[in-house]
Specification:
alpha+beta, binds iron/sulfur cluster, single chain, two-stranded antiparallel sheet, 12 strands
Length: 427
């Protein structure tokens, strides 16, 4: 039995459930939340503000969507989701200017807001300051309220275990919609307490949400790039409601995950694209396992959104309390090396059990990179170098892309963020 350094007590999974106690072995103790150098975070935010990859990597996004749309079933599912989701995104935006519907009493309403959030089905809720340092450049000014109510909604267990699959894609999309509707209800409730509430749909995120969710104590960042929450690990979707209500901030928590991921490494070992880094690096002032985007997106685009890194995470499958208990007693990672945890099937490629990995040709990872302009100019250069001259056809292709890129004004950039969650969930 390993020596327990501290215990984390968290509310039970559902409102009214008994609290759970998560033992954190001494050898896994690091810092609450995430190791962070505030001066570096400040500097990067000022000198190199974040921007959505839906803009900076727009060329690959369009390519990925075209590729995904060749899958007939997924094309219909995506269309249906976009149709249903659009109204929820717009309803969230409309809350920005909605006035409170009652006079505030002046009392601290943190408990009431949290209980309401849990009653509405949110798995985790915490409150922290809205941190401008994690805003995308193109979203600056979108939120004007000082406090962030950080929320996580569970994604159903069964379909998630079939990742990557059509069923998993359906539940992934529907979870975003269900939590968006619950978020709108929470906004109504906060207004009824006498305060403003801006409901920010996950597809309308103002930046990566994980840093504020970590700060609010909802979990810690896993090596997979997702937030690992106590009850369901990374099997949840995130959103935020900002407010000017009288609230108390929560504190970040050391669940032991920062160190545990370096022992576990299941997602790193199982990622079909080998897109997850084994070792942590310092990135924009935070210490983390960085995702190698150019190896991830081709897999996501070709294999139903992939998500193997979610499916194979033991915290997702068994919960943090069970995983940490097991580790404390045995020094082993629960489920590691089993087909049940590590196995997955890639459509058209077959089943891969523990130790087995798909092999892809080199050109599997080829995809357009950068913004539309950057990609269009790079393509012209390489075409010209290959053929020794620039043809009218090449120039026409360049012109078409540059015109398309000009159409991406701020409003279009906002709309671009409605589909892909990668920005919202990853740092
Ligand atoms: S989504 Fe797939 S390819 Fe991307 S990091 Fe996760 S496991 Fe790897
Ligand atoms: S699979 Fe293991 S290494 Fe990856 S996020 Fe989950 S706990 Fe961390």
């Amino acid at each position: 039995m390993l020596k327990i350094g501290h215990e984390v007590v968290r509310p039970g999974k559902h409102l009214g459930d008994q609290p759970v106690t998560i033992p954190v072995p001494e050898e896994l103790e690091t810092v609450p939340g995430i190791p962070l150098n505030d001066r570096e975070v400040d500097w990067y935010a000022r000198e190199y503000p974040l921007e959505s990859i839906n803009f900076t990597e727009r060329a690959s996004r369009d390519w990925a969507n075209e590729l995904r749309d060749t899958h007939a079933e997924m094309r219909e599912i995506r269309k249906e989701h976009e149709k249903l989701n659009r109204g929820l995104v717009l309803a969230g935006r409309a809350t920005k200017r909605m006035e409170p519907t009652a006079e505030p009493t002046g009392e601290d309403v943190s408990r009431q807001i949290k209980d309401k959030a849990r009653e509405l089905g949110f798995l985790e809720v915490g409150i922290t300051a809205y941190d401008l340092r994690y805003e995308f450049q193109s979203r600056k000014g979108f939120n004007e309220l000082p406090h962030a109510i950080c929320l996580a909604f569970e994604q159903d267990f069964e379909p998630t275990q079939t990742i990557p699959s059509v069923d998993a894609e359906i539940v992934h999309s529907s979870t975003y919609r269900t939590q968006a509707a619950a978020g709108l209800e929470l906004g109504n409730y906060i207004r009824s307490l006498g305060y403003m509430a801006h409901v920010i749909h996950s597809g309308d995120a103002t930046g990566p949400m994980i840093p504020m969710h970590v700060q609010a104590g909802l979990g810690q960042l896993g090596a997979c790039g997702y937030l690992l929450t106590p009850h369901e690990g990374n099997r949840c979707r995130l959103m935020m409601v900002t407010t000017d209500a009288n609230v108390t901030y929560d504190e970040p928590v050391d669940y032991g995950i920062h160190a545990f991921c370096q022992v576990c490494q299941v997602c790193v070992n199982r990622c079909p694209g080998r897109a997850l880094m084994r070792d942590k690096i310092w990135w924009r002032g935070l210490e983390k396992n960085k995702l190698y985007f150019k190896r991830c997106r081709p897999v996501m685009a070709r294999y139903l959104g992939c998500g193997v890194c979610m499916k194979v995470c033991p915290v997702q499958k068994y919960g943090m309390q069970t995983v940490m208990d097991h580790y404390a007693k045995t020094g082993q990672v629960l489920g590691k090396g089993t087909h049940d945890l590590e196995g997955y099937t890639l459509e058209g490629k077959g089943y891969f059990g523990p130790g087995e990995m798909p092999v892809f040709d080199r050109d599997f990872f080829d995809m357009p990179t950068g913004t539309i302009e950057e990609y269009a100019i790079a393509r012209l250069k390489s075409q010209a170098q290959a053929s020794g001259h620039i043809t009218q056809e090449m120039l026409e292709e360049l012109k078409a892309d540059l015109e398309r890129s000009q159409d991406i004004d701020v409003e279009t950039r906002n709309r671009m963020m409605e589909n892909l969650d990668i920005d919202a969930d990853y740092i």
